[in-house]
Amino acid sequence: MTTSAPRKKRMPRAEREQQMLTIAEEVFVEQGFVASSMDDIAARVGVSKPMIYEYFGSKEGLLVACIRRAKAELFDCVANAAAGITDPEMALRSGFTAFFRYADEHRLSWQLVLNNEGALAGSAAAEAIEEIRTEQTTLDRALLETFVPHVPGQTLDAIAEIIVGACERLSRWYVRTEGVTAEDAAEYVMRLAWYGLRPLVASSDENVEPVQGSHPAQENNGA
């Protein structure tokens, strides 16, 4: 009498989806989005190509899902690091450190976001990358508003945009530079950001005028 081999337990959909995203992330970083193939991704995952299409619809849909997973992870990382801290300098430093630590510990995710943008102009994936910047800017603005509620909204918007842009550019340098820690990178940003923010925090009872279109030097000279 023969007995049939036991059936393999089917992987839950959510777990399979995460597996697909992780493998796809590796392939996109190794080969670039344009050169990568769904056949290769399916083979590495150990599933059929139609199954990946069933989950994500297209190769771009798969990339968008990878980027959005990175966005959610980064948001949680930074938000949790700054949560509950009442000292503004410490809150900023903790948030910056968490940002750079994420870039270091999730290098594949970060390379995926930064290295494919040029080839994705006008696509849903490019929009997903911009969503990361928008979400981080909104998070930074909310943190700033907590500590300097008297500062006009336009000024807070500008400061948040500057911080996000600076952190993104510095993260590119950070992940390719040996011997630099997340704390080091955060300190570089703090030296610039806190220099400008400290007077605003100290003068929380004063009204700060929003920055106008003219150059500060021109305003001081009465030009």
UniProtKB/TrEMBL annotation:
Keyword Transcription applies: yes
Molecular function in Gene Ontology: DNA-binding transcription factor activity; transcription cis-regulatory region binding
HTH tetR-type domain ranges (all copies): 14-74
Domain of life: Bacteria
InterPro entries, per database record: DesT_TetR_C, DNA-bd_HTH_TetR-type_CS, Homeodomain-like_sf, HTH-type_TetR-like_transc_reg, HTH_TetR, Tet_transcr_reg_TetR-rel_C_sf
UniProt keyword annotations, A-Z: DNA-binding, Transcription, Transcription regulation
SUPFAM superfamilies associated with the record: Homeodomain-like, Tetracyclin repressor-like, C-terminal domain
GO biological process, one term: negative regulation of DNA-templated transcription
Transmembrane segments: none
DNA-binding region: 37-56
Protein's name according to its UniProt entry: TetR family transcriptional regulator
